[in-house]
Amino acid sequence: MGFRIWCFDPSCVPAAETIRRIREEHNWSGQECHVVSVGRLADQKRVDWLLKSWKIVVEGHYPARLWIIGDGPEEQALKKMAQDLNLGDTCQFLGPRKGIDYIAAADIVAMSTLYEGHALLPVEAMGCGKPIVANNVDGVRDSFSNGVEGFLVPLGDIAGFAARLIELINDPLLRGDMGARGLERVKAFHPSIKIKQLVDLIEQSLIS
């Protein structure tokens, strides 16, 4: 297994005032659960799968909204898909924004990627105390544990992804518990720890 280079600096978590401003700007209500997806709108990220999962959430009439942060070559096709799926104002594309600010403002993070080298998004979600629902793929599964800080879903399981989102939407206590466990786990990604691991790895390589 290669060395994991991603770090998480707690100082990058936005202040409460920034979170409040974002929620007010987009009329995020405390009566609804807010799910955010952050990333480039490209085929690798399979946001189309997320939209199909969200259709299941919408059909269940759950009090939730999906916010998609980012842009890319698939943006117009994804917007058309959202329209064709009749997602209405439960799904909005907000364009490129500072992702971690919206992660901190949301309640759940969704990640439908096909693969990653080593994904930063789950680490940022944990650093903001948010549970994550993600595909169980390389570059993601090593960041958090299924059922502990979030849920890992088999690749392409649209119904399963929706079920996990619905489980978290319906259970604020579970969201809080997973978020708290994420805050504990993310401590292992602190720059000081990662730098020490890198130094130890270099020293071991020189000795051998």
CATH secondary-structure class: Alpha Beta
In terms of structural class, how would the helical and strand content be classed? alpha/beta
Report the span from N to C terminus: 18 Å
The number of domains is: 1
| Strand order in space, largest sheet | 3-2-1-4-5-6
Helix content range: 40-55%
Proper CATH architecture = 3-Layer(aba) Sandwich
Biggest sheet character: 6 strands, parallel
Radius of gyration: 17 Å
Number of strands: 6
Helix and strand pattern: HEHEHEHEHEEHHH
Q: Counting H and I runs of at least 4 residues, what is the number of helices? A: 8
Q: How would you name the CATH homologous superfamily? A: Glycogen Phosphorylase B
- Structural shape: globular
In terms of DSSP E residues, the strand content is 5-15%
Structural description of this entry:
The protein is of the alpha/beta class and 208 residues long. The protein has a single domain, classed as 3-Layer(aba) Sandwich (Rossmann fold). It is built from 8 helices and 6 strands. A 6-stranded parallel β-sheet has the order 3-2-1-4-5-6, sandwiched between helices. The longest helix has 17 residues, at 191-207. The chain is globular. The two termini are 18 Å apart. 39% of the residues are buried.
Properties at a glance:
single chain; 208 residues; alpha/beta; Rossmann fold; 6-stranded parallel sheet; 6 strands; 44% helix; 14% strand; globular
